[in-house]
Write a structure and sequence with these properties.
Shape: elongated
Low-confidence stretches: 148-162
Mean pLDDT: 81
Number of strands: 6
Number of helices: 16
Order of helices and strands: HHHHHHHEHHHHHHEHEEHHEE
Helix content: 40-55%
Radius of gyration: 42 Å
Amino acid sequence: MWPLLALVRNRDRTIEKWLETAALPRNSQGALPDHALVQARRFLDWVGPALVGHPDVASSLGVESHPRCQKDPSRWRLHLIDPADLTDSASSEPESPELASLARYQALPDKGWSQAVAERLSWEYPYAHLQGKHIKVTVSELKRRFETHDEEAAPIRWQRPPSLRPAFLQQQAGPTPTELGTAIHLLLQHVDLQQAPTLAYLEQLQANMVANELLSPEMAAHIDLDLVIGFLESELGHRLRQADQVWRELPFSLRLPASELYGPEAAEEQVFVQGIVDCVMREGEQAVLIDFKSDQVTKDTIDKVAAAYRVQMEFYGRAITTLLGLPVKERYLYFLRLGQAVRI
C-alpha cells in the first residue's frame, strides 16, 4: 500500500471542486478537458478529480462513481482528518521540557550551546596576516619589493617576437625602450657564438629572424647591431665565446622561505619564485652569470643603477647554483648602450 498525503485549507470546498471537475465531459479516453487541467494549481488538483470517480472513494463521499472507474482494479481508502483530531492527539502525548519552556517564553537550558556558538562567532582565520601576500612571484617582482629602480620589470617572453602595441595605444613613433630591449635580448639569444661577430653575419641573422617572424621588420630596423658587436668583442664577450658551456634565456623555479620576502610573520611558509636568466657560462666547474640591460645610463649613474639590480642578481645566483649545481663565481650586469660591464 502506498500512502498519499495531502493538506488542504478548506476540505469541504476542495472536495466539492473535485466533484465539479469530475463531472465535466471527458474525451474518448476518459481524460479531463484541457481547461480543467490547465487551471490546476497543484498536483492534487489532478489527482483529486480522478479519485472521486473511483468506487472506493465515491462511496466514502456518498456520491456516484464514474462509469469508466467502476471496473478499475486498484483499491483506495480515503481518510479525512480534522485538525482538531491532530491537536487532541498531540496533547495526549507527554510534552518535552524544551517545548514547555518555549510555550512559557522561557529560555531553553544551555547545555553548553552558548559557549559553542560564541566560539564559532569569535573564530578568526589563523592565517589572516598572510592574506594578500603572493605565494608565487617573479624575480622582477621581488626586485620591486627591495628596490625602486627597474626599467625592465615587465615580463619578457623570449620565445615569441615582441608584439607591437595597438596603434591607438602608441604615444610615440617606434618601439618603446622596453620593447627594443626585448628585441635585443631576442637577437642575442640566437647569435651563433662560433661565428665571428661581424656586421654582415648579424645582418643576415636579423633577416632570418624577420623571415621566421621572430622579429618584426619595424623592430629589426631599430636594433643597433653595433651594440651587439660591442658586447661580443668585449672581454666578457670573448670569455662567453670561449666558455666550456653556455645557457641562454634559462628559465628556473626556486622555492624560498617566505620570511625572506615577507618577514618573520611568514616564517613557516614557502614562496615559489620564477624567472629567466639571460646568460650563464661555465668555466671549469664554476658558473659566470650575465644579465643584459638596455637602460639609458651614463658613467655618472651606472653605479647607482647597477646597485638597484643587486637583489635580482643574488636570486639569479642562488637559482643557478640550485639548478645547475655549480657555484657562481662572478655576476655581471652588461649595459648594452654604454658598452660596459659591472660586476655585482
